[in-house]
Structure formats: structure tokens, C-alpha cells
């Protein structure tokens, strides 16, 4: 079947333990770039928090200049841009991942990207612990509860 994810059903569901979301994936067979299969809800979670972080940091650029500056300078902890040849900033890499998916909905992550996505989530979790308030996280009018902070993530390959 065209577009069918052959072993998609054997990928375990993600789990949360001690504020860490474990996301399972498999490498697509016979794929030179090592593209991955993972559950759509895990991809949606990653994209939600990457988008949310980019928006929140951009919104606070005048209120928290140090956070904005830290997130917009090139970082050796991010990969080099294939377009510019220099290291990405945290915001450029996060927005690039989201933008790629919006432009190319069938675009998959590669195994090589996972360490950078994990690093982005490490940064995001620290930012929401120290740079954003409960008010910044938002409030659910129906449940009368503040929204949860993002989880740290780790990736595990199905063997």
C-alpha cells in the first residue's frame, strides 16, 4: 500500500515517567537517510512544543531580552544550516523543523535529528521552569487548571 507504514503498529505507545516522555521510533527499511516512523501523536506533541516555544520566546523578546538573545545566537549545540553553512540558533532550528513539516507534511524526521530535538526539549523545559510563569503557560477555562509544562523527552528505537 502506498504511504503505509509497514511496522507502524508494533511501535510502542509513548510513556511518561518522572516528567520524561519516552518516544519510540523505528528506522524505515532500506532508507539511506534513516528516516523514521513514529506515532502521529508524538510528532504532534513535538511540534506543539517547538511551535509554542518559538512563539513564546518571540513574544517575550522585549520583556526578556537575555532569553531572546540566547535563543537567537548560533549555537554549536545545534547542527549547521545546510543553507547558510553556519550553526543554527535554537530558534532557527526549532522553527526549521516545524516549517519543514508545514511545507512538506509527509516529511519525516531522520535518526540524526533526534539528538537535536532532545536538546531543544532540554532547553524548552529549562525555559518553562525559569523564564515563563504559570500565566505564560496558559489556563484551561473549562477545567480551571493551568496548562502543564512540557515533558523532557527521550527517544528509544524499536529493534
Describe the structure.
This protein has 159 residues and is α+β, with helices and mostly antiparallel strands. It has one domain (8-157). 40% of the residues lie in helices and 14% in strands. The chain contains five helices and six strands. The strands form two sheets. Strands 1, 2, 3 and 6 form a four-stranded mixed sheet that branches. It has a two-stranded antiparallel ribbon with strand order 4-5. Strand 4 and strand 5 form a beta hairpin. It is globular and about 50 Å long. The mean pLDDT is 91.
* Structure annotation, total helices: 5
- Radius of gyration over alpha carbons? 17 Å
**Helical amount:** 25-40%
Q: What is the average of the pLDDT values?
A: 91
What overall geometry do the principal axes of the alpha carbons give?
Answer: globular
Which spans of ≥5 residues are poorly predicted at pLDDT below 50? none
Sheet-strand content, in percent, reads 5-15%
Say how many strands there are.
Answer: 6
Q: Main β-sheet, in a few words?
A: 4 strands, mixed
What would you call the quaternary organization?
Answer: single chain
Order of helix and strand elements from N to C terminus? EEEHHHHHEEE
The helix-and-strand class reads: alpha+beta
N/C terminus separation: 23 Å
What is the domain total for the residues?
A: 1
